[in-house]
Amino acid sequence: MAITRNSKMKLRPRNQPPRVSRAKPMKKKAIPTIVTGETLPLFSRLKDFGKNLLCNFPGTAFFTSIVVNVLGAYLSKAVTEAIKLGNQNPLRKKAVKLDENQYWRIQFCCGPKCQCSSECSLKGLDEIDKDHNKKFEVYREEEKMGFCVSTKKYIAKGTPVMSFNGEIVGKRALEKGSDAEQYSLKLIDQDQALIEFLKTANFLAKNLLRPLATAFDRVVFINPLKYGNVGRFLSHSCRPNLEMMRIFQGGVSPGHMRIVFIANCNIKAGENLSFDYG
User: Fold this and answer.
1) Within-domain flag for 210
2) H or E segment at 78?
3) Which residues pair with 262 in a beta bridge?
4) SMART domains attached here (predicted)?
5) Is residue 111 domain-resident?
6) Is 6 inside any structural domain?
7) pLDDT tens across 166-175, in order?
8) At CA 36, angle to CA 270 and CA 219, rounded to 5?
9) Cα dihedral sign, 85-86-92-93
């Protein structure tokens, strides 16, 4: 190719190394560690038989069942760093006795990796994600109501019934008016109660207090659309039989925090399970 004075191409001196275009580094997306759970069958009993066919189920009825929350999109750096630090924090090794009214407050509960003995009374969540096919039935009888959950067994007042599992996401992940916005529950909302809880947590290393407090000053949701569990099908009621509660399980980072539904009354087998969407 001939180079003339009018050519727009710029010549490079012989001793100058060629320029290398550097691509902008892409932000790494948090890869969830997926622990799959039981997939419950969905029973549709609508009068219009055609709508009972699986091919006519709404798209929100299909998801991957999980037993542990996974990291999703638009999480702040403070939250992701707090989760990493929280995973490095030593877990409990001593037994803890449960106060009568402790269920109704933010509390710490032992996780599967805790080394406490069988005498520990904070193991109430050990079985919460197991045997859902034996415990619950998911069904719909009215199209407007959608799918609901009923219990197959008697549930005593104060019993942890189920958790609400999904992707831990930032507010930007929920588009206004989307299914994700309607199905998601808020896990953290610049909550001073959580920060005060950390100050009184005698099992927390002091160097973790500030990064965790920063994370709890953010807004975080649990989105159950892609990954979730039976909790996504719970109904709304102004007189619910379940009460929603946040519990730290096995650690004190946002990654260890779970939304758990507790029975606020005795529930008979066959009853529909509900909470106040509020």
Assistant:
1) yes
2) helix 77-88
3) 160, 243
4) SET (SM00317)
5) yes
6) no
7) 999 999 999 8
8) 85
9) negative
